[in-house]
Every structure is written in structure tokens, then in C-alpha cells.
Amino acid sequence: MKPLYYFVTLCMLFTLTACGQSQPKKSKASKNSTMENVIQKPENPYYSNTDTAKLTLTDAEWKKVLPPDLYEVARHADTERAFTGAMWKSETKGTYYCAACGNKLFRSNQKFVSSCGWPSFFEQDNPKSIWFRPDNSYGMQRVEALCSRCDSHLGHLFDDGPEPTGKRYCMNAVSLDFVPDAAEIAAQQKTLVFGGGCFWCMEAVFSEMHGVTKVTSGYAGGTVENPSYEEVCTGRTGAAEVIEIVYNPNETNLDELYQVFFTLHDPTTLNRQGADVGTQYRSVIFYQNEDEKKEAQSLIDELNYKHVYPNKIVTTLEPLKKFWPAENYHQGYFKNNKDKPYCQLVVRPKVEKFEKVFKNWKKNKEAH
Question: pLDDT digits over 189-247, tens only?
């Protein structure tokens, strides 16, 4: 268990106002837009995973849009240290792109694990995606590999690779962006369902947490199949307002998720969060397996033992039977209604608290 200092000293309770029981007017559905890029780099306007048009930029222009380490490798043919990352030995299925311009370079089935300590490939995805020139620097005769779209240095080509080509594209990892296949991503994802009062607050905070790929507001527990918001608000269905979190276990874990959960709300008030009263607002974790249950119970026991809260924690641990997504207007509520009084007075302080207490767990804390 990680140290509890994250919330022993900073677990301040919020006074909540009612989350509103009337259904707001539904806004017109926004049209879905297809993004051009698989990878988004707002700081680099020249980056595209689909545009193959030749780029001709000055060194000064590249320096403005590339991170320093990538700039030195891509524009000055620097070489990163071997074995400096996991990419050289990764066998995850996906696609590799030029990190400077987004040009598609390799597929994972063209990659092999080499003992050299750099990402190695035996074939490029498109014969036109990389071009080559002699490199006689450092008293050696080598073949330099460059991106055909932006002329960025990628690495070198050697004749000691495996069949069927016998080639080894020895690439700098910093010169590559990697996007795992959708099936690969889906296979890695896990879900977690819990509730602690109004789901607008919970969704707003966990949407900002690293490793969390999706958050859906909804309902769980109770006796009514697929209940509506109005039915849940009566308190007679037994269902609770909850969120379903989809997360990548390689980036975050149950311990971190539970720590944020217990910091975000008051787990000592029975069927109540501030002015929101009823079983639908209970503090609850819907576990899907024994690991989730044991880890939650262990943290609850430790919090109670250390008297982090003045009163005993009343969070219930209930088996998850079914999760029902809430109505569309509840999804992304804070993001779409930031100026409304409830969002300003209740949701925003929770988001700001998360950003302060768990700043190292916030998404995109550094510009990429």
C-alpha cells in the first residue's frame, strides 16, 4: 500500500449543495467529427499521420516545434543511448510513426527484438517512407536512414538483420511515435465502478486522471432494470449514481484510483453527500473480483485505523451485477456546463483539489 500522506493531511471535506433533481433541457447532439491524426500534437502544426506532402522547414522552425531531445536527433543526427526505454524490446502490436512529422514508417510485425538496445525492424511499411544516404561520420561507413516526408534523421540501416530481408533498421526510439492497435488497447483495459454522491463530480475528476481512458456516468445496484434518472432520484430503486472508469493498468492501478476516490468525497456520511441525501448518493464500490474487494477493504481498514476521518467510513462494498449508462446529457456534464452554479460551486472545487493533491497523477501535466 502506498503511503497515505496524499490524503491524511489534505482530505478536506466539501459541503455540497443539491445536485438538482429536474431534468435539464437536452441540447442538440453534436455531429461526430473524424480527427485527421491518430496522434495529436497541437504544438507541432506540421505533424500529420495522413499527409504525405514533403516538408521543407528551416532549422529554426523545427527547433520551435520539437522537444529538445527529438530536435537534436532528428535535425542534428544525434544518437540516444542504447537501452534507454522499453520500445526496443516491446512486442505490442501497432504502428510506428516519425515523431517529428507523423509519417507512417513501420508496423509491429516488421519489428524484432535486437540485442543492440535500439528499436529494430527488418522492413519498412512503405518503400517510399524512408530514404537513405551514406554516412561516413566518426570514421565509419554506414547508411543513414531519414524520413522521406521531413528528412529527419531516424537511425541507420545495416545488413545484419533477420530473414526475409536480412536488413536491420536500427532506429532511435525518440524518433518514433507508437500507436497500439485498437484490439491491443482493448485487451489491456480494465474497468472499475464506484459512487460517491453526484456523478457529475466524480466524472469530472477522474476524466483528468492519468491512465484513465474513459469515464461514463451511470447507475448500478438496486432492483430496477436500466432505471432512468428520475427513477433513481426517488431513492426507491436501490440504485446509486456511479461512474464506470476504463483504465490502463500499465499506467495506473487500483490503489491510486481508490486513493483519489476516498479523497474526492466524504465516505463517512451514510447515504449522503452534503445536501444530496438518499441511497442513490451512498458511498459505494461495486467490485468485480476479489482483488478489487480486498484492496478496497484494506484501504478502508487503514484509513479507519489511522483516524484519517473523524468518523468511521461507511463505504459499502457490493458485487457489481450490471452497470447502466446514464442519459446522454449527464455525460461530460461539467465539461459542457462549466458556467452553471452547481459546476462552479461544487464540481470545480473538487477538480481543483484533485489538481493540487494529485498533481503528479493528472493527465498531460507536461506539454508533449
Answer: 899 999 999 999 999 999 999 999 999 999 999 999 999 999 999 999 999 999 999 99
- Where along the chain do its domains lie? 59-180, 189-361
CATH of domain 189-361: 3.30.1060.10
3-class DSSP assignment, residue 27: coil
Q: What are phi and psi of 131, to 5 degrees?
A: -125, 165
pTM: 0.57
Q: Catalogue the active-site residues.
A: 198
CA-to-CA dists, residue 328 to 21, 193, 225, angstroms: 16, 18, 18
Across the chain, the runs of DSSP E, i.e. the strands, are 94-98, 104-107, 111-112, 120-121, 130-135, 142-147, 153-158, 168-171, 176-180, 190-196, 212-220, 240-247, 272-273, 276-277, 283-287, 316-319, 323-325
| 19's grid cell | 445536485
pLDDT in tens, 31-67: 333 335 678 898 999 999 999 999 999 999 999 999 9
